[in-house]
Amino acid sequence: MHIDTPTTSASLEGSSTSASQWLSVIAVAVSAFAFVTAEFLPVGLLPQIAHDLGVSPGVAGLMVTTPGLMGAILAPTLIVSAGRMDRRYVFLLLTTGLLISNIVCAIAPNLAIMLVGRALLGGALGGFWTLATAAAPRLVQAKDAAKATGTILTGVTFATVIGVPLGTFIASFASWRLSFAATAGLVSLALLAQAFLVPSLPSASALRIADFKTLLGRPHTRLSMVMVALVFGAHFSTYTYIAPLLEHDFSLSAITLLLFGFGLIGFFSNALASMVISDHLKKSVAAMVLLLLGAMSSMLLLEHSPIGETAGMLLWGIAFGALPLCFSVWIQRSTTDLPEAGSAMFVSIIQVAIAAGSAVGGTIVDRAGIHADFTLGLGLALLGLVTLQRLAVLERPAAASALDCACDASAD
User: Were 184 and a residue from 46, 102, 213, 402 both cysteine, which residue would form a disulfide, CB within 3.0 to 4.6 Å?
Assistant: First the structure.
């Protein structure tokens, strides 16, 4: 599937990416910041929202489950439906949907209306991430594609550094409703940045259902998606309910600082990963999954130890700060011929992991407690590591075949 590049970029490998092109990347990164802030805002506010709406923390976790489910369904659906529509206009429509979502959540009188707003977020979110990860290489010169992807994903880490903790901070002196209203203001800024800075992104051909079938027919792609689902499931089945775990040992302001530390160290982890990932992708993925396992283990083993839980949160921040970039580059490399299809599948799998992880985690928290939930998370992360090892084994025959071909060619 061929996709035309925007008029602001050139095809020469040696050309330098212009300032206007980098500004377009930053505009998408600001939008990513707004989307992720809105998506995970309830994580730090879960106890307060649950109390005000008269539901248990596990049921309140549906605020994370619902957008994940909608994103999984609509990530491929929206992009297929968009056909050959200029991707710039699709960006603008999806961000408008996010704005409406936050307004609905800010005024929601009950859980049902809240979930309507969160469902709208999920639909916009799925489409946005499909476009963002596929469009990143189109906004800059070819040699800067990985850097552009890393810059956009920096919006994710900034959201965890600033966005989510800021929402928790606002709620500590005002209310969680004002947190959603403030997020709506942030989305408005992102919408303006897109309108003025993102260039035309025409699509020469529409995404087809057959493209998904092609990718699913590849064993490496299927196994890669399983790995992503397991690791993201491990994270969201536990991180969604981190506030109820921490509130026994920390005040709301202290939890805000922990979430800030989680995001801040994740920002530096993302930056470091972007420098080494090109040459050490598998090692980077393995290291981050191992850190995730260590972080969740420490949260269990060192429970009620403020120092131990703080160390666990920081380790967790390092792991999750790098994992989205690691997996995004992994999928980009394995679906280079069908980038939008690969991106849509990647986003759908992540949203399924968020929805299933938070839903199952919420059920376990309400019925068996936090310990059982974290045990599930550890098991999923361990399975993700096993899947990575299987992918390495799967790639060995292909590498050996390529080496044989090279030897044959040199012999000739």
Answer: 102
Residue 8 pLDDT grade (very low, low, confident, very high; cuts 50, 70, 90): very low
Highest mean pLDDT among 128-137, 180-189, 255-264: 180-189
Core vs surface per residue 107-122: b (16+ CB within 10 A) or e: ebeebeebbebbbbbb
Q: Backbone dihedral region of 2: left (phi > 0), alpha (psi from -120 to 50 degrees) or beta?
A: beta
195-204, 215-224, 389-398: least confident range: 389-398
Q: Which helix (H) or strand (E) holds 163?
A: none
Per-residue pLDDT tens digits for 40-82: 888 778 888 988 998 888 888 888 888 878 887 777 777 777 7
In contact, 295 and 340? CB cutoff 8 Å: no
Give residue 410's pLDDT.
42
Mean pLDDT, the chain, rounded, equals 83
| 220 burial type by CB count under 10 A (0-12 exposed, 13-18 middle, 19+ buried) | middle
Candidates 292, 259, 288; CA nearest to 378 is 292
Q: For residues 107 and 81, is the Cβ–Cβ distance under 8 A?
A: no
The mean per-residue pLDDT over the stretch 305-309 comes to: 88
> Between vectors from CA 88 to CA 116 and to CA 126, what angle results, nearest 5°?
35
Q: Please give the full DSSP string across 61-109, using - where no structure is assigned.
A: THHHHHHHHHHHHHHHHHHHHHTT--HHHHHHHHHHHHHHHHHHHHH-S
Q: Where do the domains of the chain lie, and which CATH numbers do they carry?
A: 19-397 (1.20.1250.20)
Using alpha carbons, list the distances in angstroms from residue 377 to 17, 56, 310, 371, 383: 42, 21, 19, 10, 10
Of 327, 20, 324, 293, the closest CA to residue 158 belongs to 324
Q: What span, in angstroms and rounded, lies between the C-alpha atoms of 253 and 221?
A: 43
Pick 2 or 168 by higher pLDDT: 168
